[in-house]
Amino acid sequence: MGVVLLFVVAWVGAFDHMRHVQQQLIVQQRATGVPLNAPRAITPTQQIATSVLGNGSSTAFIDNAMLGFLAPLHGASGKVYFATRTPGSPIVKGAPGGSKAVLTQGGQTIEVSPEFAAPADPGMYKLAVQIGQATRQVDDLSVFTLVPFAQKQSGHIGLYYLGSWPFERGGRPKTPAYANPAGFIEVTPENADIHISEHFRLRDFLTKDQPKVWPKYILLNPKLLDKLELTIQQLEATGHPVRTLRIMSGFRTPEYNYTGGNTQGRANLSRHMYGDAADVFVDNDGNGVMDDLNHDGRVDTRDAEVVQQAVERVEQQHPELVGGVGVYSACCGHGPFTHIDVRGYRARWRGFGNG
Ligand SMILES: [Ca+2]
Ligand SMILES: [Ca+2]
Fold it and tell me: If you count Cβ atoms within 10 Å of the first and of the last residue's Cβ in the chain, which end, N or C, has fewer?
C-alpha cells in the first residue's frame, strides 16, 4: 500500500513539475520574444523511477514487511530456504496486488509472473519480487520446479536409477502420503551445495549410491526441514547447543532402500522413499558418531532419546508436523541415531540396523 500511495504522489508531483516548467518557458518566451530551447523534459516515468529507486538502489521501497506473504514458505522455524512446485503451479498466495514474481536462473530472467507461478521447465530458480518500479531479490529462498514423476521410465530418469515406488504397479496406499510422488528435485553438481535450510544443504539428503551419475533426483519435503530446524531450536533451548546435526540417511530411492548398502532394519514402506524422513545424530565434535548429549560418559540410545524428547516438544507445539520418531541403537558400523519424519500421523518405535 505504501508504494501505491508513493506512486500517486510521484505521478501528481511529476505532472506538477512539468506544468511548472512549461509555465516558466512561456513566461520567459513572452519576456524575451525569443523561443528558448526547452530543457529536456523529465518524463513522469523517469521521475517516478528516480524517486522510487533513489540512489540506484532497487530495493529501497520494498521492505521486509512487504515480503511478509513469503513467510509461510520459511516454515514455523523461519529457517526453511526452499520450495518445490509442479510446473506452473502457484509458489505462494497473498502477494500484494500489482506485484510480480521474477524468476531467474544464473542471473537471467526466465519468467515474470503476476500469478507467482513456478516456471514450466524443471530446475532451480531464484525469486525476486517486483512491485511497481522496485524489485527485491529474495536471497533466502530457492524455488524448484519438479521433474514430473511420469518422466521416470523403466525406473530411470536419464542415467539415474530410482526403481519403483510401492504403489506404482497397483494396490491402494494407506494414506495419501504413500501415493506416488508428484515429481523430483533435479540435483546437479552446481546446486548440490545450496542451503535448503539454515543447517542443511541439498547434498546432505542424496541417496548414497551412483556417485558418478549426474543429475540425481530426490524427493524432499520442506516440512521435514522445518521439523529438523525446530528440533535443533528445541535442543538449544534445553541446553544442548547444536553446531552439526548430521543426516545419516535422508532420501532413499526405492531401489536403494530395498537393495543398497546394509538393508537390515529398513521398512518396506520407509518414509525415506518419500523424502520426508531423516536419520540424524548430533555430532558437534565431528567424530562421525552421536555426541554424549546427556553427559553420562557413554554414547548410546539415551543420547538418541534426548533428540527424541526435543521432537516430542516440537510436535506438541506444531501438530501439523506430526510424524514418526524412532530411536536406534548402535549397529553395523554406525552409532545411535534418531529417525524423524513428517508422515502426517503419530508413530513411535525403537529399532536397530539402518532405519
Ligand atoms: Ca560425535
Ligand atoms: Ca550419553
Answer: N
Q: What is the pLDDT of residues 290-338, one digit of tens each?
A: 999 999 999 999 999 999 999 999 999 999 999 999 999 999 889 999 9
Q: Give the residue from 92, 123, 145 where a domain finishes.
A: 145
**Residues 75, 43: one domain?**
no
E-only strand ranges, the chain: 82-85, 99-105, 108-113, 123-131, 134-145, 147-148, 156-157, 160-161, 183-187, 216-218, 245-249, 277-282, 324-328, 337-341, 347-351
* Ligand 1 centre distance from Cα of residue 283 (Å): 4
81 and 181 share one domain: no
Q: Please determine, for residue 255, whether its predicted confidence score (pLDDT) is greater than 80.
A: yes
**pLDDT score, position 264:** 82
Measure 305 CA to ligand 2 centroid, in angstroms: 10
Tally of structural domains, the chain:
3
How far away, in angstroms, is 285 Cα from ligand 1 center?
5
**Which ligand neighbours the alpha carbon of 301 most closely?**
2
